[in-house]
Amino acid sequence: MPLREYNKKRNFRETPEPKHAPKKSKSKDHPLMFVVQEHHASRLHYDFRLEYNGVLKSWAVPKGPSNDPTVKRLAVETEDHPLSYGNFEGVIPEGNYGAGRVYIWDTGTWEPIGNPREGLKKGHLEFKLKGKHLHGQWMLIKTSRPASGDKSQWLLVKRTDAYANTEPLVPIEDPNTGKVSKRRKTAEPAAAAKKVTSKKKARVKKLPGFISPQLAELVKEPPEGESWVHETKFDGYRTQAHIEGGKVTLYTRNGLNWSQKYPTIASELKDLPVSNAILDGEVVWLDDQGRSDFQKLQNSLKAKESRRLIYYVFDLLYVDGVDCRSFPLKERKHRLEKILAEFDNRIIRYSEHVDGSGADLFEAACNYQLEGLVSKDLDAPYRSSRNSGWVKTKCKLHQEFVIGGYTVGEGSRNGGFGALLLGAYEDGKLRYVGKVGTGFTERSLMDIHKKLKPREMTKSPFDIASPKGRGVHYIKPGLVAEVSFGQWTSDKILRTAVFHGLREDKPAKEIHIENKKSLKSVIVPKKKVSPKQKADNEKLALTNPDKILYRKEKITKLQIARYYQDFAEVILPHIANRPLALLRCPEGSEKTCFFQKHIAGKVPLEFIPVTIVERSGPKAYLTIDSKEGLLSLSQMNAFELHAWNCHSDAIENPDQIVMDFDPGPGVHWKQVIEAAFSLKEILDGLQLKSFVKVSGGKGVHVHIPVAPIYSWDQIKTFSHTLGKEMASRNPDRYTVNMAKKVRGKRIFVDYLRNGRGATAVVPYSLRARAKSAVAMPITWEELKTIEGPDVFTLENAIKHLSKRKVDPWKDFFKKEQRINILKPVVSSAA
Fold first, then answer.
1. CB atoms within 10 A of CB 142
2. Is the pLDDT of residue 474 over 50?
3. 111 and 70 share a domain?
């Protein structure tokens, strides 16, 4: 057997490498494949493979190919590989032959010069290559020196032709240090190379056409480790933007020109501060919570309404004539972020990423009802294929299927269709996987039915498990549906499928069942911790206790949890049994954070759920009443805590008022202090005791405890009246209009935190800012000497609280004040 040695060396229960019988070429005219794979084994090397006689003839090239005809690269002959290996990328697990990561560095076709059988036999094979990096004429020459075992040593040599030059092609690993150089260039004709005298002139003058995109493999769990970053998985249309000479062209993932579908995006991209560029990203429609909605995206496109669409950009392939695809992702993203930061456009946005632990972020993404995550290797170049450099984890089972037929509609759908018959390809054959009959609107039912009728055919397109029976109509495959579903049955049938829309950007022939792979082989082992740290961690029962959540101060999750535990006695009275809104930052204060108000599914025992009726129906909120509850919040990376102005046993009766002074640009901190004292003067006149805290953000919060006998409308009306009174006394200094465009250099007296469902940051809470500021309660006298709203960093707050002898808010919960100005309203409400 030609592949006996290949199969003997591999344990296919552990390695993801393909196991296939050799295949012969389809015909004499069939183009022969070549592939060069970058293999990060014990030493970085390159595997050079040529398709011949149904297998891949293979050589290991330690230093990689060279375009310099004077350089002869050692090429050690290795065992033949199956043709399917030409598409392999992934990680060969530790303990297996060739353990390490494998990338496709180059691929294309090769053409022998002369008789290849004779060339291989004599040890002198000449050929032409046509790839992305390697071009022109090459030679493989066998030497008289044997390699290990029965394998031979060869030399890989570039022939002198238009593509020969001295520029390095591949990153080289230093045998002494193990470090890998980053430089890597595509082959260029020597005639052009001789004209290059500077980096500026080396840039390409004209951009290439559409570039086949890099695609992500579906995996069971997100990878861990410092080399991975994680981005939101959008539910939209993958879009490649080409910007050149004032013209913008927008391509789908399949190379279709959709510029006319996104006129607003195309128009905005014209102003991007670059001479030319190729961007990779996704066009989405966002709901009010910032989540992408594919159905709404389709509706917008049908209505030719593109103003609501957002283009999230996550990769940079070319910029100002420089091909960035060979750069590591971290460099591409750095350049992209800088360009878009200068651009500062509402429609064209940078797709943020977070570092480190994917598990917590994936949990957060699913809790927030996002699609999932796309995790990316920071050190990898951009590769036009589906490979393990990008992997995706989905919160729900969700993929595309081929429409192969439909059933006749009944009842309200009489005259239309009832359900779509779905399929996916297996080895070129269409397998029936079930049907979808929900998720349609009246409009989509009509539109889809019009597309189904012209495609009807008598013969079933399904090759495997074709459905039969009355009311079944078959159609010619070509339409693709996006569907979410609960699970697969044992016989590969969908359960609880829901239709989301038609996909016009994906060919039917590419649709197959997405099987989740395991990422065990790429998970980086956790760092070792000291015995003291281990004991401390076990005591607090935290996962990832060493995760840095404030980068500049290097404050860890453990330090934050310890703060909340050590000072729980003063924190809990301000948060216990109040409905909470949590600002969670799974990867740190400067990364992606999100608010969580509602809870769903299983919750820790330390949380106390409370049901609140909202306009959309009953919603579950969480409350806590213990140190253990605070610890669970720390575990969730919910270190910025916001609460309602009421307790859970009296939802309709707030027991405090919070007034926030939010300064506009150019307002001095002393003016904010003066604003707080101006309000205190008004409150003193109303015989209302007030308490003050620095917010840890930009301003000051004044809290007014009240008896829980007023309605939300009454409290909001009163707080609005306070703000208007301040604005009327000094209209040049204060405003109750929150619009920043009219605020100017005035202080916004924010009374809006006093409506039903509104929240304010609780006393002693950390703030999710670049700096670890605490919302610190202080006395009115202390406010006169405070230098800014964020002076109480975590370190300073701990020192302050450790030395503090008297709680400045010790009487806060003893005050159940009545609002004298509202006496007529109170008497009618009492």
1. 18
2. yes
3. yes
Please confirm, yes or no, whether 233 is among the known catalytic residues. yes
Q: What does the pLDDT look like over 623-665, one tens digit per residue?
A: 998 888 899 899 989 999 999 999 988 899 999 999 999 998 8
Q: How many CB atoms lie within 10 A of CB 163?
A: 21
Question: Would you state the pLDDT for residue 532?
Answer: 57
* Spatial separation of the C-alpha atoms in residues 372 and 88, rounded to whole Å: 25
Catalytic pick among 233, 435, 557, 680: 233
Token representation of residue 632: 């669970």
Residue with the bigger pLDDT between 533 and 775: it is 775
Q: What's the chain's Rg over C-alpha atoms?
A: 32
- The reply to whether 453 and 374 lie within a common domain is no
Predicted local confidence at residue 411, as pLDDT: 62
Query: Which residues neighbour 194 within 8 Å (Cβ) at sequence distance 6 or greater?
Result: none
By C-alpha distance, which of 512, 425, 491, 489 is closest to 463? 425
* pLDDT surpasses 50 at 95: yes
Alpha-helical regions (H) of 106-207: 116-122, 190-194, 199-202
CA distances from 485 to 323, 370, 437, 441 (A): 40, 15, 12, 18
Are 461 and 422 in contact by the 8 Å Cβ rule? The answer is no
pLDDT at position 179: 45
Range of the domain at 135: 4-202
Same domain, 385 and 408: no
Number of domains in the chain: 5
CB 564 within 8 A of CB 634: yes
pLDDT tens track for 537-565: 555 668 888 889 999 999 999 999 999 99
Pairing state of beta strands 276-285 and 237-244? antiparallel
Amino acid in position 621: Y
3-state SS assignment for residue 593: coil
Picking from 297, 281, 295, 288, the residue whose alpha carbon sits closest to that of residue 231 is 281
Handedness of CA 549, 554, 556, 560 (dihedral sign): negative
Q: What is the pLDDT of residue 515?
A: 67
Residue 95: name the closest of 38, 19, 42, 43 by CA. 42
Whether residue 749 contacts residue 727, with contact meaning beta carbons closer than 8 Å, is answered with: yes
Determine the pLDDT at residue 820. Answer: 73
Contact 596, 367 (CB under 8 A): yes
